[in-house]
Amino acid sequence: MEDHHLAELAHLYATEGLSGEDLRAFETWRAGATANEKAEFAAMVDSIALVTLGRVPDVTPGEGVKAGIMNAVGEGSSGPAAAAGDFDYLRRDEGEWVPLPAPGTRVKALSDRAEDGVTVFLLEMDAQASLPGHRHHGVEMAFILEGDLHVEGRVLRAGDFMRAGEGSDHQKTYSEAGCRALLVTARENFPRKTVGVMERLQDVVRAARGLVGKGPEKP
């Protein structure tokens, strides 16, 4: 298969998925490809997915809803399924970390039920990672579990708490050594389309790696 055709297949795989003649062409190529060729194809898919992630805009999925600090928590996601007696549970190894557009940042939704009016989630930031400035369209509270978080000229560390009121503006938020925090925020702060796109692209990359025999994605 010519390089330009393989590149086209990689682009389709990362953005739309393969079907029909494209899928058959890929399967034929894969059957005779070397391990290095398969790894190169997986790298192409990864690169295309990362470029696509970088182009994901801050979206407004509903009236009056704008970008919140995490741009996160998937559409329709409510964390764990409701249990009998109206109790919800989520084990530490359950749920999924979803990468955000800002490099080195990710979130895991713990609860996002409309009737509660708030979203509860974990935020992780790698060392030197940052989040862009944003406005809060409802109250937001954060409790630092590990590391450091630089907010409005203050350095918050493990055990520190922050509350941002409705209408408040956050400047750039960043972490020097890395951070993990628990946040409770008004649901109005979150456009859910962005994380939905992130989740779909993440699934595409995983599937591509599985198809070419690269193995599972590292956490």
Q: Please compute the radius of gyration using only Cα atoms.
A: 20 Å
Secondary-structure arrangement, i.e. CATH architecture of the largest domain:
Sandwich
Strand content: 15-25%
Shape summary: elongated
Describe what this molecule looks like in 3D.
This protein has 219 residues and is of the alpha+beta class. It has two domains: 3-56 and 197-211, no CATH class; 62-190, Jelly Rolls, CATH 2.60.120. It is built from four helices and eleven strands, in the order αααβββββββββββα. Strands 1, 2, 3, 6, 7, 8 and 11 form a seven-stranded antiparallel β-sheet that branches. Strands 4-10 form a two-stranded antiparallel sheet. Helix 1 (3-15) crosses helix 3 (35-54).
Summarize the structure.
The chain is an alpha+beta fold and 219 residues long. The protein has helices at 3-15, 20-32, 35-54, 193-211, and strands at residues 98-99, 105-111, 118-125, 130-131, 134-135, 140-151, 154-157, 161-164, 169-170, 173-174, 179-186. The protein folds into two domains: 3-56 and 197-211, no CATH class; 62-190, Jelly Rolls (Sandwich), CATH 2.60.120.10.
How are the secondary structure elements laid out?
Layout: H1 3-15, H2 20-32, H3 35-54, E1 98-99, E2 105-111, E3 118-125, E4 130-131, E5 134-135, E6 140-151, E7 154-157, E8 161-164, E9 169-170, E10 173-174, E11 179-186, H4 193-211
Antiparallel strand pairs: 1-2, 2-3, 3-11, 4-10, 5-9, 6-7, 6-8, 6-11
